């Protein structure tokens, strides 16, 4: 595993900090990771939740916060590498991408659907683009589409495995099917697919592996599979620099392995979260009343959902953990104490 390039910048550690919404990875965390030599990633999912007009005009609040959090990250990181994670599933996906480009994003990482239109949205800018894929099939689909429609390829590819946190790019049956060994084979296939496009375009496309990477042994395993780097999210939740409330961090520190479960998001996608009072009510079939629609996800119908994902995630990041949705990776229970970003990076490498 070696340091990789994003545009004319080179990492000092082969690491991307995964994007975590709502409000978990904002300017402070992303800037701190970039300052330490990795790639800091700001999540745009309901990023403007602290803006005064968020309830009245979430689209404008989010766009304003996209610019504001980049400014904060740059002040911390200097010339470090800063990007955004922007979910394809967002209603305002295109405007978020354009706002990220305008803010000077070094890279946009995009999943929760296939980012078919991403090359067009960043056209004429210096912003690099990276799809998140979970299977070789999805890697082939998006790279073939970009190749045919835009005559270009990815600048970087993130492979997100079944042990990742938050929304997952697998059906529930697939999550049950994959073992560490069988998913290792899937990673190798994706790397081969990506290399074929790198050769076609006479370039290098770093392949970054994510999901369940918690310690040096995990890093070694994906290094042996041929990964160019790692993406880590959950480890950074229990850092001093993470943008979430201390009570959110403490909920992760208190979590036991048995507390972590696959849950269903309101739009039907499986996700991984810490079981708490809120999620127990949801899993028991309770309909939880929610605020007026904040227009976050394309496929959400407010009249039909069991709970509002925006409400759940905002409650969580603000520290109201009993009423919040606590997304996490499979190994969140391993966290024992708060660390600094630099300590986490030292542990991993």
Automatic annotation (TrEMBL):
Nitronate monooxygenase that uses molecular oxygen to catalyze the oxidative denitrification of alkyl nitronates. Acts on propionate 3-nitronate (P3N), the presumed physiological substrate. Probably functions in the detoxification of P3N, a metabolic poison produced by plants and fungi as a defense mechanism. Keywords: Flavoprotein, FMN, Monooxygenase, Oxidoreductase. Gene3D superfamilies: Aldolase class I (3.20.20.70). Coiled coil: none annotated. This is Probable nitronate monooxygenase. The lineage of its organism: Bacteria, Bacillati, Bacillota, Clostridia, Lachnospirales. Transmembrane segments: none annotated. It comes from Blautia wexlerae. GO terms for molecular function: nitronate monooxygenase activity. SUPFAM superfamilies: Inosine monophosphate dehydrogenase (IMPDH). Pfam families: NMO.
């Amino acid at each position: 595993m070696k340091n990789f390039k994003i545009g004319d910048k080179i990492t000092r550690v082969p690491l991307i900090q995964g994007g975590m919404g709502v409000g978990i990875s904002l300017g402070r965390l992303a800037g701190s990771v970039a300052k330490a030599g990795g790639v800091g990633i700001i999540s745009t999912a309901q990023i403007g939740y602290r803006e005064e007009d968020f309830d009245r005009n979430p689209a404008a609040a989010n766009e304003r916060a996209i610019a504001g959090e980049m400014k904060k990250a740059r002040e911390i990181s200097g010339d470090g590498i800063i990007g955004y994670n922007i979910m394809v599933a967002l209603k305002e996906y295109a405007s978020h991408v354009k706002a990220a480009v305008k803010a000077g994003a070094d890279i946009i990482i995009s999943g929760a659907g296939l980012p078919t239109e991403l090359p067009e949205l960043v056209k004429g800018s210096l912003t690099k683009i990276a799809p998140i894929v979970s299977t070789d099939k999805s890697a082939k689909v998006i790279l073939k589409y970009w190749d045919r429609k835009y005559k270009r390829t990815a600048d970087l590819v993130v492979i997100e495995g079944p042990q990742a946190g938050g929304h997952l790019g697998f059906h529930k049956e697939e999550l049950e099917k994959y073992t560490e060994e069988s998913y290792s084979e899937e990673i190798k296939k994706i790397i081969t697919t990506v290399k074929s496009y790198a050769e076609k375009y006479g370039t290098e496309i770093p392949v970054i592996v994510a999901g369940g990477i918690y310690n040096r042994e995990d890093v070694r395993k994906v290094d042996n599979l041929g990964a160019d780097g790692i993406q880590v999210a959950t480890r950074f939740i229990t850092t001093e620099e993470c943008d979430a409330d201390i009570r959110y961090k403490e909920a992760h520190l208190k979590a036991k392995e048995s507390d972590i479960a696959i849950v269903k998001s309101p739009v039907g996608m499986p996700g991984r979260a810490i079981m708490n009072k809120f999620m127990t009510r949801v899993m028991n079939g309770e309909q939880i009343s929610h605020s007026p629609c904040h227009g976050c996800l394309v496929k959400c119908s407010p009249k039909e959902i069991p709970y509002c994902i925006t409400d759940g995630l905002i409650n969580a990041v603000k520290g109201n953990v009993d009423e919040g949705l606590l997304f996490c990776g499979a190994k969140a229970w391993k966290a024992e104490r708060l660390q600094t970003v630099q300590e986490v990076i030292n542990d991993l490498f």
